[in-house]
Hints:
The protein has two domains: 5-113 and 347-365, Enolase-like, N-terminal domain (Enolase-like, domain 1); 119-338, Enolase-like C-terminal domain (TIM Barrel), CATH 3.20.20.120. The protein has a seven-stranded parallel beta sheet with strand order 5-6-7-8-9-10-11. It has a four-stranded antiparallel beta sheet with strand order 3-2-1-13. Helices cover 34% and strands 21% of the residues. It is globular and about 60 Å long. By secondary structure, it is of the alpha/beta class. The structure holds N-acetyl naphthylalanine and magnesium ion (MG). Residues 187, 189, 212-213, 237, 259, 288 line the site of magnesium ion.
Amino acid sequence: xxxxxxxxxxxxxxxxxPFRTSFGTETERDVLLLRVVTPDAEGWAECVAMTDPLxxxxxxxxxxxxLRRFLIPALPAHPDAHTVGRALHPFKGHRMAKAALETAVLxxxxxxxxxxxxxxxxxxADQVPCGVSIGIMNSIPELLDTVQGYxxxxxxxxxxxxxxxxxxxxxxxxxxxFGPDLPLQVDANAAYTLADAPHLARLxxxxxxxxxxxxxxxxxxxxxxxxxxxxxxxxxxESIESAEHAAAAISLGACSIIxxxxxxxxxxxxxxxxxxxxxxxxxxxxxxxxLETGIGRAANLALAALPGxxxxxxxxxxxxxxxxxxxxxxxxxxxxxxxxxxxxIGVDPVPDILDxxxxxxxxxxx
Length: 366
Ligand code: NPQ
Ligand code: MG
């Protein structure tokens, strides 16, 4: 497949409500989109890096720079999704930028061959259950109202963001109000240390599905020490950047569940490797989210349809984050989203909407 050029497009997407985590509050999503142009098709992808390097070291301006300066110039003359990964391998890190480039090439390639991303990856489901991630709130009553709203919309699983000072009380309140059958989990985004183990063990009575990334990104060994001190299953997000990291975490006993985000691990092929490895070892995986527009959301739904994704993901409907999505919105029905069936990621940006949110575009001729 010959690529004639690649467009880098920055868009600004206002969030329906501020989203607060242990590392900060977001009110607008600053997204880098890639459009790979070939004589026969265009491929789209979304880079999940944030404006600031708060979730991981990557950030949007850095991702755009590494793409234009190193990654795009290193593409093979006739790339496909497999050869892209190999060509980018010499460059260390920058997995979100690499993931976006590989995914855009893969989308173009699949649109040419007429195959859906879900079929390419080996998906076994045609719809996936929706979970929702709920930010840190100003008060418990506000939190309970928010949870009630999502349950009314049909969401199947609730994830509460936690941090020191906002952990036991919100979990207790949600459990008491919505009962023992609500699938409930928490995400600390690395806000604790191993010294907090006795405190985190106080979450045990609330029968959570899992606790996600309690300790720092590079604290695999400390997570392995923490895991046996909790009855709540330990899930890793930020710590797992590759299948090698997943193998290390599994052999250390650092987690029993993995949140797979294709951007964090360098793309959908690496995400599938982690799925395969986890499945072979009997670990559950689920598909995380990075406040994606419809472009990234569509691709995540394809991944979440693989057989090892046995827990609901952060694969919410478009309106969880955006009043107007850049694609046809994904709207949950009966608590599920459909896995796209069209060629590639199966969705396209709506040109007028895309233009309205576009901040800048840059064309790179190959
Ligand atoms: C997580 N996501 O699982 C993250 C982290 C996260 C859905 O909980 C802007 C862009 C704000 C990306 C906040 C969810 C973000 C972001 C949090 C990602 O850890
Ligand atoms: Mg997380």
